[in-house]
């Protein structure tokens, strides 16, 4: 009997222990009623730490919850809340919370005083107008602390390095439902930029100084130090850049700037492999010499090999006085193509002059010599052309591999004339417009318009590289690469004098970096009269670290090549 009683006691203890363990591991649920909006959100934040099952149900825990909710509401100015916490015996970990917020405490007096040079600073005036606590407002402790932080942050960004509060006082009289705010902020004098010194640079200083976005004696702005850092990084001349104020040499409220630099390697070799349904597998080899001398000249070369195209290019860049915005470039390239009904071997030599205009447009003026030996359908010829041209290009986008907003515009023209030694006379026009927009975080719209025209009587003296073809990953999906084109009597592709395509695509974020897309493309390439074709389909997008990866299932609806096409591409969408 003794052993039997011991066994029963042990079993009961085990059951109770198991029950307690299960109970302790069950998370709490809070059923809150009576409040919504900011008050409900703040209560949820304060109660998050109690959802885990490591608190024993009971009156003491309910009191703790009441105190936490009271604190959460006081942070928003509600000091007269009535809070009831109850739980059923059958479900002790489901807490029913009834809240009556009561009348809020309002700001009865707002004594905000600004002194120092910031009294005439428009940015401080705007901050006070937008964020300063005002008489009659409901007291919000977070907004009060946020305004104090905003004042200090703005002062540091604009060079008020001695700025500080001379008085910070928040007094609350809950019984009167009143609060009294007293903030006195003395900005002191605003500092100015001093001399800029460069250390460790292998590039002559005149070129580096053209990158400085401010003058000696200008008022300090942190953002302009960031612009200088970015401009130095864009040159590609340096492996390490550190831009900072020299606080040990401050005189008369003037802050000298030190720029510590480390040269980039003399030779950089990059290899890569990629794939798209247009050109199949592509191998790449890039060899760059970021700087050749103290003037900052650079040399870049590229080798690209794919099933239908092989090319090698080299570019020699000579920066001018404003190294970030203006430069000369000499380019030499050779390309061999064997695609559809096109076989060509072309050589290009171009002299280019680049400008960055104040309107953020890049302007490029060029003179290009092209020699092309080709077979296009039933035509076998070679041609030599000298083409001066000019183009304008502008692109903007938000951050990220799949930006929420972006736009790109390209307009260009090249002219050839027998008067200066070309084998043919014509004017070739090219344009491309792209736009990306978003609605919230989960919806994107991508649009593209692409067009071109060659003003001449016929195609016989125009090489394939200057004719227009449509179709492919970045053109009209649902059709093979460069298969939308005029055809001869043998049904061979001849290319066209004109081309126009449009794409409209909607994307929806499924989860994380994964998106679904639906699209419709429309366009044609023609010589005399367009034959419009349309492609429709859906796809998958992955925002990879190196750019969008696109997989499209597309159907061509018109023409002799209509049918299904699978498109795969990696790279920018515009």
Automatic annotation (TrEMBL):
Keyword annotations: Cell outer membrane, Membrane, Signal, Transmembrane, Transmembrane beta strand
Limits of the Bacterial surface antigen (D15) domain: 270-571
Main location: membrane
Location relative to the cell: Cell outer membrane
Record's signal peptide: 1-24
Source superkingdom: Bacteria
Family: Belongs to the TamA family.
Name of the molecule in the record: Translocation and assembly module subunit TamA
